[in-house]
Amino acid sequence: MVRDNPVIEKVLVANRGEIAIRLCRAVQEEGLRAVAVYETPDAENRHLSIADEAVWIGPGPRKDYLDIDRIVMAAKRSGCQAVHPGYGFLAENPALAAACEDAGLVFVGPSAATIARLGDKTISRTLAAEAGLPVIPGSGILPPGQEGRRLAVEFARTHGFPVMLKAVAGGGGRGIRRVDDEQALADQIGLARAEAQSAFGDGRLYLEKGIVRPRHVEVQVLGDSHGNLIHMGARNCSIQRRHQKLVEVAPSLLAPEIEEAVCQAAVKYARYTGYVNAGTVEFLVDADNSFYFLEINTRLQVEHTVTETVTGIDIVRRMLRIASGRVLDVAQSDVACRGFAIEMRINAEDPKRDFAPDSGKTVAVYNSPGGPGIRLDGMVYQGYTIPAEYDSLLVKLTVYGFKWPEAVSRMARALRNFRIVGPKTTIPFYRALVAEPEFMSGSFDTGYLDRHPELFDYRDLEAQEERIAKLLAAIHHHGKNPYAF
């Protein structure tokens, strides 16, 4: 077990890119030293210049960021006392937390036992039911072969289609398939099992009753090892593609009494499971405002920025303090959500090609927006080449407005002023989205993109505008117009 009140002076940031920069900044603001790790393809990544030190962990790509022994060795050799995994990679792998504990390192997050227990979707559902939370009807783990298919069909006939076929070890929107009839169910089980085994090293599956067009909301919780536990309000992350979130909003846009009920349910679950550090309890909210426990993510979320924006509370710094054994310095009465925040993930993807990554391209122009209420979390710059080996996220754009219409109009302005020339990005798609009446009203759900295919008919950045942007970049670089005679 981790020592009580361990002395932390250096923290290994076991991640890359945007989130590594975010973690390094929080570590440094706490008066600690941040140590970055990197694979060879990331040798020029910006997170290395932000950190106080950097440790090469291997040629990569990706495999060394996933190598627990290398991460622990890098922490020990650089004199770190703690490891923060961020999100993605090893963040929800209990083996990393256990390895840190065995090596005398502090893992900035919940314990290995908590991650293992709550990361199993069937166990977390059982615990939610025990805690008295409403839970979507589920099948339990489906055995392999014909028996699993028989039980799956029996469950679907009892509860009706659609059903959601899920990987027990899935997370972050991965390992989920919607199934609408018996033939598709028979066809999908084998494929889903193989996919889950490949992605998570665990081929177990289960079924849930499908909730049609729900709102997907999640509650940020923080708990310390002294029994203090709070929520920081709810977020709405209903606008998704392939179960991956595109837009996040805080607060949740639910009626205040419904949001409060959801938040109290999240606290009840976290307290029942003895949760320590930062976590996110997720729910589906039906059209009649009935809500159901979905899962818990035992890590920092990509969308933590919107919660920080409306509460003014730095989640990452609290994670570090909790990990060091300190008492949480925020009481529930201190948490007040003021205004609205919207986060949009600016990815190097082509929305018109089912959000296919546009890797290998170089950013010829990078001109970001600024002004009141704008927050940027990213690692892209002019001259940056989009790697094929890693995630396509370039920068997270978060805006704040005192009222929802103000937040929407500020996001529209920020997107108009955002120029990334070179790769295809999600910016033009978002420009169309913020002008759509349903989004402007704040009444969207998980079926939003299916109802609005017209959003993908946006006009691409005009060739003339792109040429002008490239010319301005060349003038800035050379100090003169390189094309002038």
Question: What does this entry look like structurally?
Answer:
The chain is of the alpha+beta class and 485 residues long. It has three domains: 10-108, Rossmann fold (3-Layer(aba) Sandwich), CATH 3.40.50.20; 137-209, Dna Ligase, domain 1 (2-Layer Sandwich); 215-463, D-amino Acid Aminotransferase, Chain A, domain 1 (2-Layer Sandwich). 35% of the residues lie in helices and 25% in strands. The chain is built from 16 helices and 23 strands. The protein has helices spanning 17-29, 46-50, 68-77, 94-102, 112-119, 121-130, 145-159, 182-200, 256-272, 304-311, 315-323, 404-416, 427-434, 437-441, 448-451, 463-478; strands at 10-13, 33-39, 53-58, 82-84, 106-107, 138-142, 163-171, 174-179, 205-209, 215-223, 229-236, 240-241, 244-245, 247-250, 277-285, 291-297, 340-347, 349-350, 356-357, 365-367, 374-378, 393-401, 419-421. The strands form seven sheets. It has a five-stranded parallel beta sheet with strand order 3-2-1-4-5. Strands 6-9-7-8 form a four-stranded antiparallel beta sheet, covered by helices on one side. A hairpin with a 5-residue loop joins strand 18 (349-350) and strand 19. Helix 7 packs across helix 8 and helix 12 (404-416) runs antiparallel to helix 13 (427-434). The longest helix is centred in the middle third of the chain and has 19 residues, at 182-200. The chain is globular. It starts with 9 loop residues before the first strand and ends in a 7-residue tail after the last helix. The mean pLDDT is 94.
